[in-house]
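<derive_structure_tokens>
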Amino acid sequence: MTSLRNFSKGKFIPAIIFFSGLLFCHITGNRGVYPIDSFSHFDSGFRILHGEHPFKDYWIVSGFFIDYFQSLIFLLFGASWQSYILNASLLNGFISTLVYYLFIKLGLGVKSSFFYSICFALLAYPSSGTPFVDHHSTFLSLISVIFLILAIKTKKLYFWFLIPFFLFLGFLSKQVPATYIFISIILIIGLHLFQQTKKESFNIISILFVSSSLSIILLIIFFKFVSIDYKDFLIQYILYPSTIGNERYTTLNYDLNNVFTNYKFIYLALFFLLFFTFKNFKKEFFYRSIDFKISLICILIFISLAQHIIVTKNQIFIFFLIPLFLGFTHLQVKNNQNLKKFFNYLLIIFCVLATLKYHLRFNVDRKFHELNGVQFSNAVSSVKLSKKLSGLKWISPRKNTKQETLLEVNQLNAYKNILLKDKSKKIIITNYSLFSVLLDENVSSYSRWFPGDNSAFPIKGNIFFNKFSDFISTTFMNRKIDSIYILPDVDERNLTDYINPNCLIKKKLDYKIIKFDIDKNCKDFTSK
């Protein structure tokens, strides 16, 4: 009975939510792989511990903060798959607990706050399970939104101070959707300041300015400390990605499917919220209330995230908005006694059904990582590849039988053994970015990803093509690279388009591996 009373008072609930969020992400993170995404920060976190850094040692267009956070986790817990997925799990646990805290502060009951927070935790980062730039950018930015709501509600200045800091971390994880959410936050802050006294507005603006300035100053100091040239950051993180965005916007297509059908249940959750918002408009000065501002925030956040997905054409991962919006709706229902009982049951039933639907689709079937077509009974233990991957059940997209999965793991083992025998300075070009950790040797290449388009680095025709070509040549010289291995999952043009062919001596090895030895007598590596 004492335990039940403590639960009803909420004493243990934050810890329960945090560790539930941790566990949900841990389970899905061990359930299959989609190599180009699942391993995107695995080797890069490792190479930072060995003295290499993004922008100066490998080209990146996003994921700056995630790489360094991953390196810190590896430093504390060792480089392994379980410490790798801790990156995503920690953020999932933290933001889910923060959602609970927000609901409590807004006046939602302990049990209802617990319910919606658990549903949120189940639909948030577990859709990926492994560190992913879109998720990190979204949730770090969403933390800023939560602090904005708390700042408006409580009038405490330290919440205002935290808004720019977490939004900045979101931007350093990926430029969008953080930028879209930044614009949304600016609009809401502008509305709020318009309704405040001059003194209150001045205090808020001062705090935001100090926090923003401090975030930028800390980044500059960090760049100085690790010897990253701000020009490299500007080109790789700002200027080059803007060319990708411009190309995508020219081919942008809005249709019924990608604007409405894909998000129909999020629209329904938002409809419930807006129904009560408009119902409450008859109240005097309702437009000044926290409920009205929350409704505006929800509209803007949904538009920001949906726009991001439409532009990037990535898998949809924003169904965590459903329990979040329904929790806000539940708060407004409390003020309508005539409708309270009916709508409370309706909201809870809808939330349970929606959460189960998307849990099965993304956490069980692993749709986000293109695994919804595989039979998970055909997965094999990744210990066959390395003890560092212990706990990971290996299966990847388009592997329909256990024999195909075993063949993939055996081939990776063969690649590892070939690399182990080569004692020269080498790099490997592949989307299986795990060999540096497995070999305990930095064999990672000049780019984190090789997606086959211009989304990771400039291809021919891009204005930054020569810049990237020079970057590769400089990398080879600085690291004194002797040879480059290219695995079958990546086209050799990812090298030969950028490096002078006369400087490369091509060899074909077993398992369809291509090896290029570098001619040390070559005076100009750059492709002409």
